[in-house]
Amino acid sequence: MFDGKLPECFNRLSSIKLFDISSNQLTGVPFPSLITNLTSLEYIDFRNNKFEGSFSLSWFSNLTNLEFVAIGSDNENFEVETEEPVGWTCMFQLKVLILSSCNLNKHKGSVIPSFLLHQYKLRELDMSHNSLEGQFPDWLIKNNAMLQVLILGDNSFSGKLSTSFHRNPNTKWLDVSRNNMIGLIPNDIQESLPYLYHLNLSRNSINGVIPSSVGDLSVLQELDLSHNWLSGEVPIGLLTNLSHLNMLILSNNSLHGEVLSRNFKLSCLSSLHLDNNHFTGKMENMGAFNDLKILDVSNNFFTGLIPDKVNNTSMLPTSLRFLDLSKNNFSGPIPFSLSFQNAWHIHLGSNKFTGSIPNSFRNLTKVLTLDIGNNYLSGRIPNFIGELSNLRILLLEKNNFSGSIPSKLCHLTNANMIDLSNNLLSGSIPRCLQNIARPSYPAFMKSVHFSAGSVFSTPYLYSSSLYIHRNFQPYALFRIEDEILFTTKTLFMAYKGDVLDIMSGLDLSCNKLTGNIPEELGLLAQIHALNLSHNMLIGPIPVKFSNLANIESLDLSFNSLTGKVPSELIKLNSLAVFNVSFNNLSGRLPERKAQFITFSKESYEGNPLLCGLPLENECIMEPAGPQPSNKEDSDEKWHDMDMASFYGSCSSTWFVIMLGFAVVLYVNRYWRRRWFHLVEESDHHVAILHDLPSLTGHALP
């Protein structure tokens, strides 16, 4: 890999035809003479370097043989300019132009390069990630009859998607994702672009229904219409006619209907994304997906049982690697016949599943994420969960699991996040949980990219006199980013993608756990969130918690903890949320410095024997000088009273009571008569007792 600036002597290579310096660490500003003197140049690739400054395509104007241009930089200060000088004329006809992520015409209003109006031989054009503005340039497809690939994603194009141009049977790849397109998907799209392999209109503001003509794109392999405002039902032809369809993404729209109850004819489908819509009905005929690897139907209104052999419906394919059925209304037991030996991520949370964890889950040897939280599952947490050595995320919260926490879970040394909260777990916290959260390698940072298919277009083949061949074939890279919900800093937060390798947490809250907090938990140096609240834990807060160097959220509230809040905890410089409220803690709070100066009295409320800021309870100051030591002094407690104050307080209280009594007698005539009557009777009884010895002749003892 080369670095530094381009040597000026390169401009002497007037006979060079292929100039490829891509994927290096070259810096500086490319100088015009470097390009203008290379008059025989046919192929130039400057991508993936560290160039800066401005690069003008007018430098190529006299290169009559130029066919391939790819320019870009990993430096934000690099810009490609096409509009200066005004009126420059290009003498070339390009076949491939790649100007992705290069701040194209940033200081000229981000306009589409005007020289493209005079290009008629383009086969591949990529101007993605440039914030280009204006109407969708359908004239590019009209002017270039051989155009196979048009990539305009991640810009600011607006207006309606138009296919009113003449029929172009050569266009196979159209990507207009992440723009500001509005309106409907054209009804005549099949007539205008009959041989599309890849169509990506995602992340726009396209509305209306999916036209039935999309189902007539007979060779379509990838369709992404996600993150729009589409409504209505999915056309029948889209699920039955597209026998070559490999990837279908309809996520984040307002589509409805019983889409999974239909008879599919999509045997080649490997990725199906229907999440975040309004789909209903049951999951049936899943056997039609022979090679399905990704199935995401989360956040819909699907009902019924998960298909398996027992209920005589087509089972979910065993080829699945990513399964997300969360946030639906699926019910019944999780089938014991399910077999996902190749699965990496399984999300069954937020449904209505009942019964116990099936024994077949012991075969999930490759699983990284297992989410079955927020259901009605019961029984004990099986020991075999601890044998899933690759497991990184275990979410069992909000169920009815009972019994003790299996010590086998301590074998999950790679597990970053474990949530067992809101169950009926009892017994003590296993001391060996100190062994978790020690992953040996990043599992999410290197997320697998699924290529959605084979070569779609006849590649542009560059062949020079040196017989060097370059194939330029577009392909779809679709990254699966796992996402989970976890409570930290009192918030139910979403964590997605690479951050799952960094985030680490243990949540055992809202159970019936007893005993002391194991001091060994203080060895979880990498953990960011620890929640043991709402249990029946006793004993002191372990001083070793001061070793939780990365802790951001520590919640020990609503237990029966005793002793002091360890002053050593002020060393926790990352601590943002600290809660020990509603325990039986006592003594002086840690000094208010570092993170502890940010904690309010709500962090300590419900502990009447705590004192010191931010609480209103003041601690009694100890004498500054040395005091004589005797047994009486040694038995004194920090909360002994001032006796003079005590007697004064009692006298005042007694006076107030008597005064109130006198006022009542003065105001209420009835009670005043009753009181005088009671006094007369008392005097009468006292007189009788006084005269009794003289009447009987005996003295009172």
Automatic annotation (TrEMBL):
Keywords: Cell membrane, Glycoprotein, Leucine-rich repeat, Membrane, Repeat, Signal, Transmembrane, Transmembrane helix. Its main location: membrane. The keyword Nucleus does not apply. It holds the Pfam family LRR_1. The chain crosses the membrane at residues 646-667. GO terms for biological process: defense response; response to other organism. It is a single-pass membrane protein. One of its GO terms (cellular component) is plasma membrane. The keyword Coiled coil does not apply. It is found in: Cell membrane. Belongs to the RLP family. This is Leucine-rich repeat-containing N-terminal plant-type domain-containing protein.
